[in-house]
Amino acid sequence: MTVFKRFLVLLLLSLLGFCYYARALAGEKWAVVIGISEYKDRRISDLPYADDDARAIGDILIKEGKFSPQCVEILIDSDATKENIYITIRDWLLPREKKDDLVLIYYSGHGTSSPTTSLAGEKGFEYGTFNAFLLPYDAVAFPSSVPFVGRVTHEGIEEINDTLIPAERLSSFISMLDAKEIVLIFDSCYSGGGGKYILEGASKKGVNITGIIPKTSTKSNFAKDVYERLREESREDKGVKNVVVIASSRGDQLSFQYERLGYSAFTYYIKKAIEDGVGLDDAGKDGKISIKEIFDYAKVKVQQIGAFQTPIVFPSEGPDIYLVEKKWVPEAYMKEYVWKDVYDNVWVPERIEREEEGLFVWRKIIPGHYEKKWVKEKKVVRETPIPGHWE
Questions:
Q1: Are residues 296 and 383 located together in one domain of the fold?
Q2: Cβ(331)–Cβ(288) below 8 Å
Q3: What are the distances in angstroms from CA 101 to CA 96, 178, 180?
Q4: Structural domain of residue 308, as residue ranges?
Q5: How much is the pLDDT for 130?
Q6: Distance between CA atoms of 107 and 170, rounded to whole angstroms?
Q7: DSSP β-ladder status, 111-115 and 127-134
């Protein structure tokens, strides 16, 4: 091998190594996207657009957020069981993500609260705590013992809670991530707190819940609980990570779904914020869209359409995370060849034919119908301006 060839080989290997290093330095983007419209327990009300919410978020992350399709896992309805959600985070996400990566977890579905059962003692259930939960596909609304005893027992509450996803358990999985940036989005009723308790449905159906629901209680805040647990875990184990947790509503509010939007209101405006490039008004911007810019836009829009919900974010101040990065494409001209007929009219043909008497072009008038026109042997360039834009 000549010296020159050796030099070329070394140069190529160096470039490949640099590209690998640059890619590793930039980090990968990962997402677990969950949407549950129909629950296995038919006593839990359907959410018409939660599945579409999840699909839309998955699509927009790939299209606009430049997430690799292999790095986005979407769980819809029956795929979003409690076990599958845990397995996806623990067995799919954890082995793949690395410390320079960004991880986003999105949930659209029911949120609820349920009383703890560990407070029985001298005061019975006079005082207690509601814990906030997310409902996976296989959550149950009533314990199996209700038809037999006519009331909800302490064991019945434990049976219900065992089918739900508590903030503590979800946080324990997420805290094991090495990723330096973590975004969590919960688009569910009461996602910002304890809110309505799941046993209200039992009470309205005449099931006795006396002695189960505390007369005086404190309500946990799901989004805040998850955020604080993650911050504490990261400080103790792996250094402080950049964590942003978003809830579509406060703890005492519903999250609204709108038929005319085809999505939940909050998710629709998250999608719009990313699609429209919120904050990218001109070429002077750096092309980066942060999660808090997206949140601010969605929060304002949700309230402008009259939805009685107040999205919240943790932390309200401090470090931000850039979720989308676009590049500015300067103004340009699209060039295309066209033909002119004997009257100098411009023709953009579908196809071209050459016959003895001259050149003919075919142009589509309406679907299935074409017009044939003889033109001069004159091909010209037409330039159409394309304004500068972000992509």
A1: no
A2: no
A3: 10, 8, 6
A4: 24-326
A5: 67
A6: 12
A7: antiparallel
Amino acid at 279: G
H/E segment holding residue 83: helix 82-87
Which segments within 99-171 are labelled E, that is strand?
Answer: 102-108, 111-115, 127-134, 165-166
DSSP 156-174: HHHHHHTTSEEHHHHHHHH
Beta bridge partners of 139: none
Name the nearest CA neighbour of 119 among 131, 129, 111, 132. 129
Residue 9 lies in a domain: no
Give the Cα separation of 382 and 338 in Å (integer).
7
User: Same domain for 248 and 162?
Assistant: yes
Q: What is the pTM of this model?
A: 0.74
Smallest CA-to-CA distance from 220 within 175, 253, 190 is with 190
Tokens of residue 185, six digits: 């989005």
Are 163 and 308 part of one and the same domain?
yes
Q: What pLDDT digit, counting tens, does each position of 56-106 carry?
A: 999 999 999 999 999 999 999 999 999 999 999 999 999 999 989 999 999
DSSP code for 225: H
Q: What percent of the chain has pLDDT over 70?
A: 71
pLDDT band at 9 (very low <50, low <70, confident <90, very high): low
DSSP-derived 3-state class of residue 48: coil
**Residue 2 maps to a domain:** no
